[in-house]
Specification:
single chain, alpha/beta, Rossmann fold, 2 domains, five-stranded parallel beta sheet
Length: about 220
């Protein structure tokens, strides 16, 4: 039996791709009628990851959309949909990951979210997914106007919640964000799937069952 002794007192989760199923393809696959090639070209050349990242650090949607429509008038409706139909990009939560978060909380481990997210869209997200209220704290890039992997956002996070880097685990699905956290002494885990995350956290000595609880996610606390 593995030891449950651990120095870890807190676990911080990224949101999109870890606790929430965020992906613009959920929206644009419908808008492009299943034309994957055209959709991918649009997301690579028009509503690009860099453009989205600017929204995550505080750029107003109205300004960003207007500038992009001016540059790509033939895609005006598709660009506008990025804000108007934004909720379709987040159709649900990743319940197996949410179950891990709840299991940690039941064991006395503090849980947080640290995510790149627009301050404009986050209130709607918070209202749609009440499990986020169960976290001990949430820091999104849009409120501090700096995003991962900038070391500054990790500093904001640790300071705001009174956490120690070496006693905090950070879980993210992007290698660059994991590397940035690790460089600051945070215990960083690359998220692949919930089963791997459960194993990785158990390897750190965190009090998780070897298998998910029967019946899916734990009930809301």
């Amino acid at each position: 039996m593995r030891s449950m002794t651990t120095q870890i007192t807190a676990v911080a989760f990224d949101l999109g791709g870890v606790l929430l199923d965020w992906n613009p393809r959920h929206l644009y696959r419908r808008l492009f009628g299943g034309d994957e090639a055209s959709m991918e070209r649009f997301l690579a050349e028009v509503c690009t990851p860099a453009w989205n990242a600017s929204l995550d650090v505080g750029r107003p949607f109205a300004e960003a959309v207007a500038e992009l429509v001016a540059a790509h008038p033939d895609h005006a409706d598709l660009i506008a949909a990025y804000r108007l139909n934004w909720q379709e990009m987040v159709p649900g939560s990743l319940e197996d990951s949410v179950a891990i978060m709840r299991e940690l909380r039941r064991a006395g481990i503090r849980t947080y979210a640290l995510s790149n997210w627009s301050a404009e869209t986050f209130p709607d997200t918070l209202a749609r997914f009440p499990f986020l209220d169960e976290l001990d704290g949430i820091l999104i890039s849009g409120t501090v106007r700096v995003g991962k992997p900038d070391p500054a956002i990790f500093g904001h996070f640790l300071t705001r919640f009174g956490l120690t880097a070496g006693a905090t685990v950070f879980v993210d699905d992007w290698d660059r964000n994991v590397a940035a956290a690790a460089a600051l002494g945070i215990v960083a885990i690359r998220f692949v799937d919930a089963a791997r995350l459960r194993s990785d956290l158990r390897d750190l000595g965190l009090p998780l069952a070897a298998e998910p609880p029967r019946g899916g996610a734990l009930p809301r606390m």
